[in-house]
Amino acid sequence: MNIVFSFLFILCAVYGLYQISEKQMKRTLQSKWSFLAHYPQITKAISFLFMFISTLLLIQQTGSSIGFISFWVFSSPLIFIFILYINELKPKQK
Q1: 3-state SS assignment for residue 31
Q2: Torsion over CA of 27, 33, 36 and 38, rounded to 10 degrees?
Q3: Whether the model pTM is above 0.90
Q4: Of 10, 26, 55, 94, which residue has the fewest beta carbons closer than 10 angstroms?
Q5: Is the pLDDT at 93 greater than 80, yes or no?
């Protein structure tokens, strides 16, 4: 169950950090997630807190050294899939 919560916390953290990025800020201000853009420092703090909680959950599940490494191994493909999902991958037209 810790792994599922860790997965959800990582996704929420990555999504929060994405919404307040410089390239996304204009769109975020016009969307229903505009409160994230109004308070970017709080959003960053909460996102990093979610990552920290996710790391603690994995450490609790597997032990300190393996849990810390498993956070990075577990979050890397999630972040990659998130980037592929968000970017509009269309071929260049000539």
Answers
A1: coil
A2: 70
A3: no
A4: 94
A5: no
H/E stretch holding 9: helix 2-19
DSSP state of 89: -
- pLDDT tens for 26-68 read 888 888 888 888 999 999 999 999 999 999 999 998 888 888 8
Task: Report the residue count for the chain.
Answer: 94
CA angle, residues 84, 87, 90, in degrees to nearest 5:
100
Buried-state track 5-23, b at ≥16 Cβ within 10 A, e below 16: ebeebbbebbebbbbbeee
Tokens encoding 32: 């229903």
> Do the beta carbons of residue 74 and residue 58 sit within 8 Å?
yes
